[in-house]
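Fold it.
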Amino acid sequence: MAKLALIFPGQGAQLVGMGRDVAERFAVAREVYTQADRILGFPLSTLCFEGPAERLNATDIQQPAIFTTSVAIFRAALEAGRLRPDQPAAMGGLSLGEYTALHLAGAMSFADALRLVYRRGQLMQQAAELSPGGMVSLLGGDEQQVLALCQKVAEHGRLRPANYNCPGQIVISGPKAACEAAVSLAGEFGLRAVPLAVAGGFHSELMQSAADGLRPALDACPFETPKVPVIANVTAEYHGQPPQIRSWLYQQVVGPVRWQACVQRLIADGCDQFCEVGPNRHLTGMMRKIDRTVAASSIGTLADLASE
């Protein structure tokens, strides 16, 4: 019998107009946006549906926007019969998406999760302004090549892997000068470098102030043990009791996202179908590079809800 893993996107998945067609068709999705607007005290739904892109792309907005849109699409998928409540064998999410998975697995309420991701976005934006940094996607190599490049440019600042996304794609993070040097020298290490349009050096030590600022909010959040197994970015192990959830989410702010390892663990544990729920299809694309033998699909639009 097939085992389904639901996966949820992180930063960078936002699109102006995301969720609008689903919210227009499904009242349960509209209610998610209405609730988010009420909790945050500003029209997040308008930013999702209409932009402007510059505001939607800001770290403090895109995090709650992607989270809310993913939840709205999930609720609509249940309503449409595209997913069943008892269907997921496990859940996971890339960085921010881990919060979506934890909420939908019953570890925290929508309101608590939304407040957490909004606070997380604010703190990460503040940390980026305090310690200017960047991120570079390195394509076509392995960890050894990436670490060698980071060592080569160490005089410009400390770079480290921030996202182990899939074979041949590792994202590094750190000070801007070091990122620029890595882009210039990547070819010498057999790598192709793509600078990312992000506000700062996420998942690196430049985010330490954000992690420390988030800790009180994590401590105050009334977590529960997930009802569905949720894989953790920093360990590729499953979340357990609330203290462990808080610890791993704290570590995630400054530690690397081991997405490839997370997916491989889910596959090893029997998941042979993966469905990405939320805007865009970034994770679905990565799935094909991690393991082409497993079925991968996505639900992000009204058209996706109508197809099987």
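The longest strand covers residues 133-139.
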